[in-house]
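Predict fold of Phosphatidylglycerol--prolipoprotein diacylglyceryl transferase; 269 aa.
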Amino acid sequence: MLAYPNIDPVALALGPLKIHWYGLMYLVGIGGAWLLASRRLARFDPTWTKEKLSDLVFWASMGVIVGGRLGYVLFYDLPAYIANPMLILEVWRGGMSFHGGFIGVMLAVLWFGRRNGKSFFELMDFIAPLVPIGLGAGRIGNFINAELWGKATDVPWAMIFPTDPAQLPRHPSQLYQFALEGVALFAVLWLYSRKPRPTMAISGMFALFYGIFRFIVEFVRVPDAQLGYLAWGWLTMGQVLCVPMIVAGVALIVWAYRREPAAPKGVVQ
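Predicted 3D structure, encoded as tokens:
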């Protein structure tokens, strides 16, 4: 068994102001995405300035934060937030939904694309390889918060989390998600997007592989206490939300290659 490092969730305290590692992980994700997007900007559209890229990253980030929080409220714990709406503002405690953030990003990209003469999938293909940076950083934030841990196990790398009332050795499922949703997904998308691909194909790859990776990890991750398992003693809300992503990912890839076997001239994803 490995010892949990027990890192203080508060990275820096300045009087009443507390800066949490969880919040800093969002800054890491946003900053990392902006840096990599800057490197790919000329390939995406030589006419775009870094100021326009910054606008895209800003609005996409707002989609992540607002959509992620509202998604958690709607998908995972609506009664608690109806009883105490002020809890919605306590984002430093965690409680963000990837699927809600994903919807928020799609809405932000749709709005931004219409204002800047870009199609929805042009922009989604551009930003999809950047998203795993934020996903990986977010999972590290979950680990520092000692939340979203896995089922009890006797594997050699099991950990006892201080937030676990039972104090049982558990799968560090946050690290599994960091490895799959962060590192592996980034590698898949970054390598795949290095060559011209049909429009929608990169978006499809993101939806497909994220859905698969998340679905797998949910088997060893303890579901939210207020929801538990939805069916058959193993189906979680995370898995339910991933099924449409997997189906949509396959459909987008097939559709992309059938309608556009090669990337259009002048467009390099």
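The longest strand covers residues 10-14.
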